[in-house]
Amino acid sequence: MTIQLFELASADQRILFSPYCWRIRMALTHKGLAFESLPWHFIEKDRLEPYGSARVPVLLDGDRAVRESFDIALYLDKAYPDTPPLMAHAAARARAKFIESWCATAVLTRIRPLAVPDIVDIIADKDKAYFRESREALFGCRLEDISKDFDAERADFHNALAPAADALAFAPFLAGDAPDYADYVLFGSLMWPYTACRREILELETPVGTWFARLLDLNDGFARQAARAVDRS
């Protein structure tokens, strides 16, 4: 039975922009596991209720449902031990968990003012009222006012990436000579603006930018082939 993955989609269901879902897309590709994408929209919480969740990603593997991106990665290593590991040992799991926490507190928070205003333009019409109401309540302002100075916010975002840039001075990937789930955690975070934003957020002529390009090209350019909002006609 094919693995299935509920993923957050825009109005154009080819554009999948959730950072957490991209972590699992890369994890499944890393392990060589075929999967079926199940596009999901913000207001379709009833579709996830049978699996005990209200948000994506949710992975279905036969009669097993797994929620939360880090738990899904752990499950994949346990369920498919004969495929390349995402986190080969305790040190790798600790590293990936650290990167996950760092992304949540330092990276995604810097991406939000840059990306959120563009999201409302690409999501399905049925999602727009929910998205606006929930995000304006979260940020305490209108969506149009979340970003106040794009250039300053972009510079702040790049400053936040300094720890990753320092690490990449020693190895081509955060995990060393080859990528593992730690790389996919940060990469998934950066796929959010890459797929959803009208303007480029990440400067490619930087250590993190060149690392990002290497990951785009992994597995015959799996991620580079992703549909992007800037490509829509």
Query: Would you state the CATH class of the largest domain?
Result: Mainly Alpha
Radius of gyration: 17 Å
What is the number of helical segments per DSSP (H or I, 4+ residues)?
9
Overall helicity = 40-55%
User: Distance between the terminal alpha carbons, to the nearest Å?
Assistant: 36 Å
Outline, from the CA principal axes? globular
Number of domains in the coordinates? 2
Give the low-confidence spans: none
Q: Look up the CATH topology of the largest domain.
A: Glutathione S-transferase Yfyf (Class Pi), Chain A, domain 2
Helix and strand run: EHEEEHHHHHHHH
Instruction: Determine the strand fraction and express it as a percent band.
Output: 5-15%
Mean pLDDT: 96
Tell me what the structure shows.
- The chain has 233 residues and is an alpha+beta fold.
- It has two domains: 3-79, Glutaredoxin (3-Layer(aba) Sandwich); 90-220, Glutathione S-transferase Yfyf (Class Pi), Chain A, domain 2, CATH 1.20.1050.
- 51% of the residues lie in helices and 9% in strands.
- It has helices at 19-30, 69-79, 90-122, 125-139, 150-160, 162-167, 181-196, 207-216, 218-221, and strands at 3-8, 35-40, 58-61, 64-67.
- The protein has a four-stranded mixed beta sheet, covered by helices on one side.
- Strand 3 (58-61) and strand 4 (64-67) form a beta hairpin.
- Helix 1 (19-30) runs parallel beside helix 2 (69-79), helix 1 (19-30) crosses helix 7 (181-196) and helix 3 runs parallel beside helix 7 (181-196).
- The longest helix is centred in the middle third of the chain and has 33 residues, at 90-122.
- The chain is globular and about 50 Å long.
- The N and C termini lie far apart (36 Å).
